[in-house]
Specification:
single chain, mainly beta, Cathepsin D, subunit A, domain 1, 20-stranded mixed sheet, 4-stranded antiparallel sheet, 6 helices, 32 strands, globular, Peptidase_aspartic_dom_sf, aspartic-type endopeptidase activity, Xylanase_inhibitor_I-like
């Protein structure tokens, strides 16, 4: 079901929950879900939640490595249950904030006296805001039995961050903030797990379609897709690596990164090793290098020398296909007349802790059709000395299941589900509520 239909269902459920206070105390779900749709203009991944009193449906962009759920509180935020976190409170401690004080103008929602503040990020415009007010309010999210959605549950005191309107620049139309799914304690996965006492795990399955929804499920598997297939079976597991430095738009904040890094050791194209500087694949003492997974970039970004080596190897393996002019943001493009199917292009392997453990990127996730006659390698040149050497972007995540196990610090991944005749749009959004 598309996100528009979900939006209508959300409005109806929110209206019902005002009077019935669904799930505030007695109901303890084992899993919760968010439907996610790809915005055709920005290529961002969009979801909706219910927030405030009275409840209002809010559109938010997914930020996989984000520290917090942040919302524009400057533009029409009205709620009788809004509560700023006070200096020295448990909420401020949980958020690990370093700034506490009074509003420098007339106090209002998002700028309170004796309140604590953090530094939310908009990764799409590479901007941080150092005056985000830590706040609590009602949040409503949908229960799932991991096969279908159920009723909405209401959380009376969910910690989030209030920001001014300017931080929403660059977000998709109508979006009021971002949902942070990062590794810290006030990100959505950790708060939901703490509130409802289920495992601190979540899974994302992003649809490649702009018309059909993918899904994020908070809690453990199994994760069922139509026709009654558990897509969490046969996952490949690799450690998640902690980067000791912040890696957002302004790196080297005084805490470890909330983003998700994995240990890529080498790269293969069509099964053949690609000669690259392997020092770039490790995180150095300043937090530079390594490989992270991000929805903040629509396509995978490679450090310049890695990009050159991978594209050279890829072109050699497609020597019988005609090269054509570059189409921004891509530099390596081909005539699609010589490629019958994306399955015919060489696979790209991100080799992990051993040669037998790798994330295989097939043509459906590596090739982007930019016109009826032109198809491009969907990787972007990240230039010299970027903060992170490899950023696995959204396009390469689509129709792959990724499960993040935070206590064990492991990532489970499926590689493309298409070879199992499944897409991430196969979740059954028919409600059982």
């Amino acid at each position: 079901m598309a996100l528009t239909s979900y939006y209508l269902m959300l409005i109806c459920s929110l209206l019902l929950s005002i009077s019935s206070s669904i799930g505030q105390t007695s109901f303890q779900p084992k899993a919760l879900l968010l439907p996610v749709t790809k915005d055709s203009t920005t290529l961002q991944y969009i979801t909706q939640i219910g927030q405030r009193t009275p409840l209002v449906p809010i559109k938010l962009t997914i930020h996989l490595g984000g520290q917090t759920l942040w919302v524009d509180c400057e533009d029409g935020y009205v709620s009788s249950t809004y509560r700023p976190a006070r200096c020295g409170s448990a909420q401020c401690t949980l958020a690990k904030v370093n700034t506490c004080g009074d509003c420098n103008t007339t106090p209002r929602i998002g700028c309170s006296n004796n309140a604590c503040y953090n530094t939310p990020e908009n990764p799409f415009i590479k901007t941080l805001y150092d005056g985000g007010e830590i706040t609590e309010d009602v949040l409503s999210i949908q229960y799932t039995d991991r096969s279908n959605p159920g009723k909405f549950v209401k959380i009376p005191s969910f910690i989030f961050t209030c920001v001014p309107t300017f931080l929403t620049d660059g977000l998709a139309s109508g979006v009021k903030g971002t949902v942070g799914l990062g590794r810290n304690r006030i990100a959505l996965p950790s708060q939901l797990a703490e509130i409802f006492s289920f495992p601190r795990k979540f899974a994302i399955c992003l649809s490649s379609s702009t018309k059909s929804s993918g899904v994020i499920i908070f809690g453990d598997g199994p994760y069922m897709m139509l026709p009654n297939i558990d897509i969490s079976k046969n996952l490949i597991f690799t450690p998640l690596i902690t980067n000791p430095f912040g890696t957002g738009s302004v790196p080297f904040l005084n805490e470890s990164s909330s983003e998700y890094f994995i240990g890529v050791k080498s790269i293969r194209v069509n099964g053949k090793p690609v000669p690259i500087n392997k020092k770039l694949l490790s995180i150095d003492k300043r937090g530079n290098g390594g490989t992270k997974i991000s929805t903040g970039s629509p396509y995978t970004i490679l450090e310049s020398s890695i990009y050159d080596a991978v594209t050279k190897a890829f072109v050699q393996e497609l020597s019988n296909v005609t090269r054509v002019a570059a189409v921004a943001p891509f530099e390596t493009c081909f005539s699609s007349k010589n490629i019958g199917s994306t399955r015919a292009v060489p696979a790209i392997d991100l080799v992990l802790q051993s040669k037998q453990v790798y994330w295989r990127i097939f043509g459906s996730n590596s090739m982007v059709e930019v016109s009826p006659d032109v198809i491009c390698l969907g990787f972007v040149n990240g230039g010299i000395k970027p903060t992170t050497s490899i950023v696995i972007g959204g396009y390469q995540l689509e129709d792959n299941l990724l499960q993040f196990d935070l206590p064990r610090s492991t990532l489970g991944f499926s590689s493309s589900l298409l070879f199992r005749q499944i897409t991430c749009a196969n979740f059954n959004f028919t409600s059982k509520a």
